[in-house]
Design brief:
five-stranded antiparallel sheet, elongated, about 150 residues, single chain, alpha+beta
């Protein structure tokens, strides 16, 4: 199969996903055909979204299915699954903010734990406003947090 035939089939099935660059892609593509921006699949509604957005285009959920893994242990999350929901899309070297340019920061380190004392996980970040390194355990909030760039 080629990109064109895969895309035509996806559009007929209404399963194509649109990238922020404007290109439509088949649902099984894990990156945009044109710009190679990666995608993620929503755990709630199974919609494929571009990594340029932190919330699902269809249902506004922010839980990638890839973070959940298999559900062999039932409906209760494992510690690694819970940590993935807290860290969200943040990676070392990435730049993020809390909804305005005054809160922009770069992630320097992610300690997923578990640690024997509180906080059980933490992120070290350098904020643009003062250049200071700060360690915190604030979970990702798709309603206000956003990705500025990834390495």
């Amino acid at each position: 199969m080629t990109y064109e035939t895969d895309l035509a089939a996806a559009k007929r099935a209404r399963r194509a996903w649109g990238c922020t660059c404007g290109t439509d892609n088949p649902p099984h593509y894990d990156a945009c055909h044109a710009c190679q921006r990666p995608s993620w699949t929503c755990a709630t509604c199974d919609t494929v979204n571009t990594c340029g957005r932190s919330a699902c285009n269809e249902c506004a959920d922010d839980m990638p299915a890839e973070l959940l893994g298999d559900r062999s242990e039932g409906f209760e999350m494992t510690y690694p699954e819970w940590i993935n929901t807290q860290v969200g899309p943040r990676v070392v070297g990435g730049r993020y903010d809390h909804g305005d340019s005054a809160s922009a920061y770069e992630v320097l380190a992610i300690d997923r734990g578990p640690r024997p004392t509180w906080p059980v996980w933490q992120i070290t970040a350098r904020y643009d406003r003062d250049g200071q390194d700060t360690t915190h355990c604030s979970g990702w909030d798709a309603g206000k947090d956003r990705t500025l760039s990834t390495p």
